[in-house]
């Protein structure tokens, strides 16, 4: 971390010397490292979209705490990102468990003195199946992890954000919230619920200067979404509704999340941004 | 019931004699009793919106099975509606319990030979509170009753609809799905989830010729919504966003539900109709 | 007209005699002829969706004034509907011309003493073409007829509605407002504009007790929409997005319009109802 | 321009030397000057939101051509931005005139060899008034400038983007597209139309690798929106619907536009991002 800061210092020095005529904002740390000194928690971030977001937040200057249910995955992600010179630590966290949520927040507070950013990424496998066949067990798992855990983790984090005078939360939903993925009923419903959760949290948390926004990725090629693209026909069906004729990459989702957490997004709250290659979503 | 049918027969006779030049559709039972011979289940229907819907479906010709958690309330509602000459029976049903859901469906099958219509009305009290303060217990109660029970009741009903060659489901959400009611976080989120449930069930059930639509009432003056209107200031805040400057009445919600279940709505599925006096909802 | 009223009287008599135990509302003219004595203007109503709406409003008790750009078509539609015993007259009206709009309103006032209902149906042919190729001439024609004429006709009608203490307007948009039809760029945009026009008019006209709602039909099989379904491939593409696997019929759109104009819809304003067989539209 | 490029080169050099361990993406020109070497047209850009966007695109590395209806305003904006060391030129352009639109595109091609980015900002004064009072003259002016001119300017620009293998368009709508501003009927409708224009252009232009997105600002404090905030009561009404209790600043809108034009947004097309301090818009 010290190393990274040092390098920023060098860059800033170079910057100041070479481009004096440009407004500081376009040159300084704000633009190049828009999240400098921010502390960010990212759940389900050892792989796929969550991992890409964690990396990007760190590249943009944040101290990032990654997490997922398996310590081994956490260790590997941390090693990879630290190997890239990024300020990243990690802790095991099952977001469905109160003690894990508390430990995640406590870890960030202990290491970095507080929390500024929370990225709540869904952690549960999108069980393949229709609503008409859904069991209570599967329903509960999906809704609890995708929706309730997001609400409860927010509840755990907000006091820390309030102490720092504000913060930014991004909830990862899906374009399936608008335009259901085939055969993923409970998953789709949980993603629609997150649109409402975003609006409600934005309203409630405005008083503490906490902004809450939402990302709705399309079909992103990850191990997580394999059920959607490993079947050639299903992939073709979904691609038929896309304007940009490729599956998304995790990195396609990372820039907008970093943006939404930055000062540039200070007047944006309660909104959902769809990153889905042009799949129909909403007007 | 026999009496009601008899009366319909008399009316039809009078109709046929007096207005021969008009197309049958505008005169016959379809227009005047658009739900004639249909069997309808309505949950949470012994009071408020559910009761108004049950009465209207019966007035429009359906055999209606009302239900709610308390036998006493069921008895009273049945007595009232039978006293109006309507074909209404009832059974106690806690929609959160599998055996109750099954008994509800079985009652309709036993009495009327099947089910054509399901109106899934929320049964849980809208606990007053913010998401930031929500307990797991309250969250679970609201989401389980409002969303999961709707999914599971649908699952129980659809085989009966399929046997009859189709059916119609209306899910009662709320304008709060779009435009959150203050201090009712978990309730609001559950109502947004129902928008997604509607879309997903419409997709899944089309193969059995079952249409699924959604009603999103605004602030309707019922005992259920008392938390919203008993506080003068809160009521004024909500009214400020209305174009029609009064609280809704349960009857304001009944006509559209009957319409959505009728032949006239045969090409409508997956849609939500807002009945909220002009509160902002969606484009 | 006298004849129709007489018949209603006979029916009412029969009704009163045979079904005394049922609440009047379910028996009386309100339910069976929900638009009794209402005066309705319907534009572009000598064919297709407009014609089906005009017929239905008349069947539901309204005095209807049909109109379109060609006197011959008006004469034929009036003859057909009068032949069905309905209270229908007509007048030639090019909604893009101020004098025609005024004459349309004046006709209704002269014949029936006022106006209660306006159905603004688009009259312009949906020129087949992309926005990237659109000429100013085509753009102007489509936007002027579909959007501006609706606004100006409303302006001409509202004073008459205000005199009667209120009224109801239904604007015919299209599901293409949400989910664009291929190769119909300017048409699609004009239909999205109508969603906004509906919201804005609902807000402005609430003070005169005029409700404004919108119908968004899907692909309805009419001569008007021939460009969409005469090409087999295009029709298949659109059907692929439908849950109900058939093109709509004009009658599929008529019931909801009559409903929206009835007392049953008294608490509904500013809303759009999609009748599109389950094509994706909005949450 | 050469100067700016030189400075970029120096920065890159410094960067390469000092921060080798970090992935190039986080260090290189892409992240710090995400629009380096891009050529951007911005209409209505000598003041307010358009000016803030033009400045930001230039700060982020683009060569920007500003424009508005008055040469004097163009000269002043260019002088200001060049004085900040930015690569900005300008030309007078009334977007409602074909020759002006063509000259605008030709200017960019002549100066910079092509066009990569178009920001279509509305240029017409938001005439204060209701739809019920609107004249054809005012309606035409607002719809023609805000909507038709955007379509026609796009038509003029796309061939140039196609030559370069792709491009990015951002259309400036308004939160009033969803949640109408009081007493600005025609303006509001034109902004809703732009949501549809965005969707349609995104579909049509995908084949040339041109992405089309939309910005929906809330109440931004500019001379343009003075009618909305100079009246204390109207300002308070609008603020009451905001979660972030201040009017927006033009700069609040600039970052997201630059983002949408950058590589980071490569998988985003057809979407509208609301920047309105939490005013209700859409789910």
UniProtKB/TrEMBL annotation, chains A, B, C, D:
Residues 1-16 form the signal peptide. Keywords: NADP, Oxidoreductase, Signal. GO terms for molecular function: carbonyl reductase (NADPH) activity. One of its GO terms (biological process) is retinal metabolic process. GO terms for cellular component: peroxisome. It holds the Pfam family adh_short_C2. Belongs to the short-chain dehydrogenases/reductases (SDR) family. This is Dehydrogenase/reductase SDR family member 4 isoform X1. It comes from Odocoileus virginianus. The gene is LOC110129565.
């Amino acid at each position: 971390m010290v190393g990274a800061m040092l390098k920023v210092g060098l860059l800033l020095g170079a910057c100041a010397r070479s481009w004096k005529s440009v407004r500081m904002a376009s040159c300084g740390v704000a633009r190049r490292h828009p999240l400098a000194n921010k502390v960010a928690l990212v759940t389900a971030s050892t792989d796929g979209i969550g991992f890409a977001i964690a990396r990007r937040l760190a590249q943009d200057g944040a101290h990032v705490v990654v997490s997922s249910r398996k310590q081994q995955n956490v260790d590997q992600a941390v090693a990879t990102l630290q190997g890239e010179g990024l300020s990243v630590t990690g802790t095991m966290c099952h977001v469905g468990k109160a003690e894990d949520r508390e430990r995640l927040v406590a870890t960030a507070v202990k290491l970095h003195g507080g929390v500024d950013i929370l990225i709540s990424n869904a952690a549960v496998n999108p069980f393949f199946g229709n609503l008409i066949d859904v069991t209570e067990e599967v329903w509960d798992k999906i809704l609890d992890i995708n929706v309730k855990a997001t609400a409860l983790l927010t509840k755990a984090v907000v006091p820390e954000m309030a102490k720092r005078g504000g913060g930014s939360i991004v909830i990862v939903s899906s374009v399936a919230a608008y335009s259901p993925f085939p055969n993923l009923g409970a998953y789709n419903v949980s993603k629609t619920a997150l649109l409402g959760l975003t609006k409600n949290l934005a309203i409630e948390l405005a008083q503490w200067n906490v902004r809450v926004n939402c990302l709705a990725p399309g079909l992103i090629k990850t191990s997580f979404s394999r059920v959607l693209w490993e079947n050639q026909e299903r992939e073709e069906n979904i691609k038929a509704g896309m304007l940009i004729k490729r599956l998304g990459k995790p990195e396609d989702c990372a820039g907008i999340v970093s943006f939404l957490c930055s000062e540039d997004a200070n007047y944006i709250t309660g909104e959902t941004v769809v990153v889905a290659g042009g799949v129909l979503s909403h007007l």
